[in-house]
Amino acid sequence: MSTLDLTPRLTDPDTLFEALVEAHRGLAPDASRRLDAKLVLLLANHIGDGDVVQQAIAAAIGNPAATPAAPSDTA
Amino acid sequence: MQSTYVHPHYAHVPPTDDGARHKVVVVGGGLVGLTTALDLAHRGQQVVLLDDDETVSVGSRAISFAKRTLEIYARLGLGARLLGKGVTWNVGQVFFGDRSIFAFDLLAEPGHQYPAFVNLQQYYLEQWLVEACQATGLVDLRWRNRVVAVENRPDAVDLTIEVPGGSYRLTAEWVLACDGAHSFVRETLGLPFVGKVFRDRFLIADVLMKAGFPAERWFWFDPPFHRGGSVLLHRQADDVWRIEFQLGWDSDPEAERAPDRVCARVRAMLGPDVPFELEWLSIYTFRCRRLEKFRHGRILFLGDAAHQVSPFGARGGNSGVQDADNLAWKLLAVLRGDAPQTLLDTYDEERAAAADENILASTRSTDFITPKNEAARAYRDAVLELSEQHAFARPLVNSGRLSEPAVLRASRLNTPDAGSWTGGLPPGAPAADAPVVCDGREDWLLRHLTADGFTLLLFGTPDEAPAAALTAPAGRTRQGAWPVRSVFVSPVEGDGVLWDREGLAAARYDAQSGTAVLLRPDQHVAARWRSFDAVAVAAARRRALGITGDERQRIPA
Ligand SMILES: Cc1cc2nc3c(=O)[nH]c(=O)nc-3n(C[C@H](O)[C@H](O)[C@H](O)COP(=O)(O)OP(=O)(O)OC[C@H]3O[C@@H](n4cnc5c(N)ncnc54)[C@H](O)[C@@H]3O)c2cc1C
User: Fold this and answer.
1) Looking at the partner chain, which of B374, B377, B382 has a beta carbon nearest the beta carbon of A41?
2) What Å distances lie between residue B131 and B35, B124, B139, B204, CA to CA?
């Protein structure tokens, strides 16, 4: 089983963050929610591994037991 | 309203056996009760069937019967009739807005006698089942017999039955409760029927029209003619079409039932120029729930009395027919002393697992069609929007995952695989059909399986067949009750073999020369081996009859 990678992997985190937020500009709450859902679905399919996505769900909910111990340097 | 079908009227005959004792009493003469009675009668068992009504199913109910169900009815002699009258279909199409987003073929491979589905109004099938039951001479069909009291004793069940002008009592060694979703038997025993109700309402209109739509299942999400809801269109026999409109939880069922309003909805869908007549209309709320146990001593629950699902996926009736198929031979083996009573617990284990599978599939479909909160709606709509452009999203669209037979993987009747397999049918799977040639004629594999015993499929050329299998088809098993009959499936033509000309049988069973597959009387795989071993076959047969070490003392087998 693959493990969700929780180490920093993005070369340009600020640009990515901005792009995510920008995509929602001017959207009503329901359209915004649908956009996020599409993003999740697109990325989940790209990952193509249900186990990894399940781990990501657990990590997003904040369930520490379901999240593999993160190396200390991610703090 | 209904003009294409006249309901038969079955006369009530006053009972003459007050206080009598019967071996098997089926309560409920609906789809599942009738199928159970017919299966038992086909196996030579006398049955009393009690039904509180005097005709067959009324109104808009089951229409789609799946391949496995058709194969079971073929065994019971109704296959050709279903194919003849029913509408065969394999393809489903999904629309979003005014566009078709994709189509799916439920029977993508050729070489099966029966299609993925046949659509036929439930009342036809029930009527034929009644006729077939009558023809056996073994089913005592009692109309307007309503069970009003049940006493479940350790060795028998006492029933009080209300009939016109009075009531009488019967004692049954075994009661098969097939009395539907509102099962009186279940309620009087105080058995909880737990699950969930979906907060939605559906209008079902059966419409008579000459329409040019193909015989396919069409499902719309948010079409222009019914904004915000889903619609299903399906063809039935006699030019009757089922149209199903999702109305939403806040709709007013009384107002929606008004024929003018229904006609306006249908006209908006079909356009102003398509003439149609309403055959039947009803409004439903759907549920998914089941009994915790399907066996309670000498009472066994089948069909909707045991489990209920939403219709998306056509899993209600189809799974009830599989309940009957699973139970009939087991009950008979127990009644005749060929198997221990604990064999009946495997009915509960196997079919409860199947019910869970059906409930899960039907719940997921219903949750997709009726999102239960804003987040669910956002994901649902995201899937639909993406699926227009991107193939990856299409498998996520869930308009009903259509009935597939259960693979009884965890059953204790299975002999676990030894040897190496790269697919095929694992123990617990229903037998796959395949085209074969028998004595120079085109034929089908499933037609050669034994119903009153076990079938051993032996793959390979006749001259490679193990001598033991040829001389003593049952290995060392007794040739009395539930014998093992060998069927030779050969890649070359020969006397007394099924010629697997296209190699499809071997492919579907992952068979090599020498492979042996043992099938139960209900056509599910009990065991498989890479080579024939008479002792192993005999042991697997005993295991599939629920005979464990202890019982071997009592039950010779
Ligand atoms: C709108 C709709 C669409 C459906 N579509 C499909 C489909 O396409 N495919 C599919 O497979 N399934 C479908 N189903 C489900 C299917 O109709 C049921 O699963 C099926 O009818 C169950 O059969 P049953 O014999 O268990 O119960 P029922 O058909 O309900 O029969 C129960 C019988 O018991 C009798 N009875 C009740 N109480 C007593 C009593 N106390 N004493 C004596 N008799 C009694 C009743 O009169 C009745 O005859 C659909 C259901 C609905 C509502």
Assistant:
1) B382
2) 11, 11, 10, 29
